[in-house]
Structure formats: structure tokens, C-alpha cells
Amino acid sequence: MKPVPVRRKKNRDDALYSKPEPDAFEAVMRVRQALGANLYMLEDTSADAEIYKLPKALRHVLLIRPGSYVIAGGYDSPKSKVKGEISHVLVKQQIDHLVESGKWPDSFAFVEDGSTTKGTSQLAEDEEQKTTSVEGESSDDLPKNTNRRHWEVCESSSEDESNES
């Protein structure tokens, strides 16, 4: 019988429920691209992209997608293409904690749904456009669903005939 992997459960709980903060040698970065073999192209606040690796303890624990945020630290070796290692993959609650503590970079604007924005004034304009477009739409403006058979409904004359007799 195979023992239960306690270490993976501990790593998952640490990754999801801890409140990590970057230290002097680490920075908050955005994932630009997954390169494979646990290597990721990360961009920092100045939009410079470099390759970082995911440590063995975090593999198969969390899914890292392009646009996700991580805390990564650098190596001192200038010979390697890999510039550092990812120490934490940030989820929404951890990002909120960093924003509240003032350690979130200003160049990464963050909204409650997890996406980046261009500014608060643009957010207000987008909300106004959404509400006006929803109010002006009706079901007649929607295209017909081609996946369903459309039956033409005709007023049946059989009902009229049965009522007459």
C-alpha cells in the first residue's frame, strides 16, 4: 500500500493560504509565457522578460497561466539563461493582501476580478457603456440560434373547427 503524500498537501496549503511578501531579493512578476520543462517567461514592472524556473516543490500544486502573478527571486550566475526561481504563485487573496500592505507594484494595476486595467477612469467608462448597451438591447437584436430547429408556428384551424361544432 502506498503512503499518502503529506508533503504535496502541505505545499498546496502553503501555496493557497499563506500571505507571502517579497523580500529584498524578490519581486512581484507577471507570467508572460510558459516555455515548457517548468520554465516560464516572466516580465517585471519595466516589462523586461526573463526566464525563471518553477521549483520541484510547487510543480503539480498550482496551475500557472499567462497573466498570472508570481513572486520570483534571481540567481547570481550570469552564465545561465535561467535568471531565477519562482518562490510563490499568487492567488486573488494574496494579491489583495499585497495591495492592502502597499507592497504591490504600481505598474501592475489590479481589479477584483483578477484582470489588469488601464485606469480607474477607464473602468468607470466601461461600466457606463455596459449598462447603456444592456438597456438598449432586446431579444430581436440577437441572432438566431443555428443549432436548433426553428418551427413556424401557425394558428391551427382545427381548434377553430372544434369550437364551432
TrEMBL record:
GO terms for molecular function: RNA binding; translation initiation factor activity. Keywords: RNA-binding. The keyword Magnesium does not apply. Transmembrane segments: none annotated. GO terms for cellular component: nucleus. It comes from the Eukaryota. Residues 115-165 are annotated as: Disordered. SMART domains: eIF1a. InterPro entries: EIF1AD (IPR039294), NA-bd_OB-fold (IPR012340), TIF_eIF-1A (IPR001253). This is S1-like domain-containing protein. It comes from Rhodosorus marinus.
